[in-house]
Design brief:
Length: 80
């Protein structure tokens, strides 16, 4: 329901930092990664928590996730 409500172009950008965890909790890894990349591209302030948020534990080692962390300069300071 929440994903449907936020599925217009503005919602996908504005709420991408929320949509990522929702998708991760639904075991939609590809969708969660899409949202993580969108959060990074939109330079959302909330992206600073990507590296430590436990909701992303399942996808933390995925190359796409690691690429976002590297782009944010977080991969160098976070232990895997």
């Amino acid at each position: 329901m929440l994903l449907a409500i936020t599925n217009d172009w503005r919602g996908r950008v504005e709420y991408s930092w929320r949509r990522g965890p929702w998708r991760a909790l639904l075991n939609d890894s590809e969708g969660a990664l899409d949202e993580v990349e969108r959060v990074y591209q939109a330079r959302r302030l909330n992206a600073i928590y990507l590296g430590v948020d436990p909701v992303y534990d399942r996808i933390r080692d995925h190359p796409r996730f690691q690429k976002v962390l590297t782009g944010m300069g977080l991969s160098a300071v976070l232990e895997r």
